[in-house]
Amino acid sequence: MATSNELVRNKIEELWEEEKLFLKTLGSFSSTLGNEKGVQQFVYNYLQDMGLETEAITVDPDRLRKYENFGEPEWSYEDRPVVVGEWKNNGPKKGKSLILQSHMDVVSAEPEDQWETPPYSPVIKDGKMYGRGILDMKGGFAAIVMAVKALRESGVELGADLQIQSVIEEECTGNGALTLLDQGYTADGALIPEPTQSRLITSQVGVIWLRVKVKGAGAHVERAESAQNAIMKANKLMESLMEYREHINNRPKHPDFEHHPHPLNVSVGLIEGGNWASSVPTECTFEARVGFYPGTAPEDVKKEVEQWLLEAAEEDEWLKEAKPEVTFYGFSAPGYTISKEEELMEEMSASHYAVTGKQVEDLAFTATTDLRAFGEFNIPATCYGPSGGDMHAPNEYIELESLKEVAHTIADFVLRWCGEK
C-alpha cells in the first residue's frame, strides 16, 4: 500500500499543468500597491473551492500601531483585503499547527517597453515562466496551494491545523501579514516561500523608508545665478546618503553577514522636482531605502539618518538656512534571525534533503520579508522557495522545475510538521 508521501508526490505531478495555469492566472493580475482586490478575490474563491474555511479581512492601521513592525501608510485600505484559508484538524492534535504565507502585491512593471513579453500576460519559454510577480512571489504561492491541494486530494488528514495566508504590502509596510496575526491567525510555525533558490533564511536585515524635501529659490534661467536650484541641492544630500552607505558598511559586521562584502544597502528610489525646463526648480523631493542589521531598533536608525542628512546640510550655505525636511513612512522594519537549531529549521532541512538528496544551504538575506512579523509574535518562521531571476526588474522569471521541486518539499514538510491523524 502506498504511503502518504508517495500518494502526495504522485498527486503533485498530476497537478503540474494546473499549477502552471494557476500561476499564469495569478500573474495576469496587475496587483501593485492599491490594486490587489482582483487577485485577492480570485485567491479567496480558489481557497474556498478547495474546501478551506476562508475569510477576507480589511487592514486597520489603528489596530496595528502598537506593534514594532507597523509601517505608517499614506493610502487607503478600502477594497484591499488580506485572505486566509484554514484546514482545521477535527481530531486530537498530533502535530504542530502551521502557516503557509505569501504576498500578492508586486512592484511596478515600468518601464514596460523594456520587457520582451507583456509583464501581465505570463509566457513560458525554455522552462521558465516570465511575468511581473511570477517569481516575487506568486510562484511560491502556487507551490503552497498545490502542495496543500495534493495533500487534501490524496486523502491525508493532518494532525494539526494549517492555514494558507495571502497578504498585501510585503513590498512596503508589512501591515498585511501583521493584520492576520493581530486577528488571531497564529500557529506553532510559519513558512514563506519567497524565492530563495531553495535556501533557508536564517537572518535578514531591517529596512526603513524616508522622504527628504528640499526647498530652493526659483527664477527664470536668465537669472539662474541668483537662484537656488532645489534639484542640485537635493543631489548634495543624495550623495551624502551614499557616503552614509559606505560608513555603515565599514562598521563591524553582524555575525550572520560577515561573509557578505556589502550587506547594508542604501538606495534612492524616487525623485521629483521642477515643473519647467526654463525655470530653476524651487522644490525637490526624493525617497530612499536604508538597510540595517538585526538587533538594531528602526527608531535609532531613523535618528542617525536624519542627523547625518542635517549635518550634510550644514556644509552648504543655502541648506544651512533652508534645512531639508526629513520624514519617514512605509517600512519601519526591524531585522530578524532564527537559529538553525529550531525544530522548524531542522524539519525543513530534512524535507529539502528528502526531495533533492542535497543538504540545504543557509541564506542571510540583505533585504526584508514578512518573517519579522512572525518574530514579533514569537512564531518560528523561515523562507524557502523557488529559483529564477530579475526580481523588481524587466523580464522577471521563475524556473519551473524549481517551482515543482519546492511544491514537493513543502508537502513533505507539512507532513513532518503537522503530522497525520
TrEMBL record:
InterPro entries: ArgE/DapE, Bact_exopeptidase_dim_dom, Peptidase_M20, Peptidase_M20_dimer, Peptidase_M20A. Its EC number is 3.5.1.16. Keywords: Cobalt, Hydrolase, Metal-binding, Zinc. The keyword Metal-binding applies. GO terms for molecular function: acetylornithine deacetylase activity; metal ion binding. Belongs to the peptidase M20A family. This is Acetylornithine deacetylase. It comes from Halobacillus halophilus (strain ATCC 35676 / DSM 2266 / JCM 20832 / KCTC 3685 / LMG 17431 / NBRC 102448 / NCIMB 2269). The gene is argE.
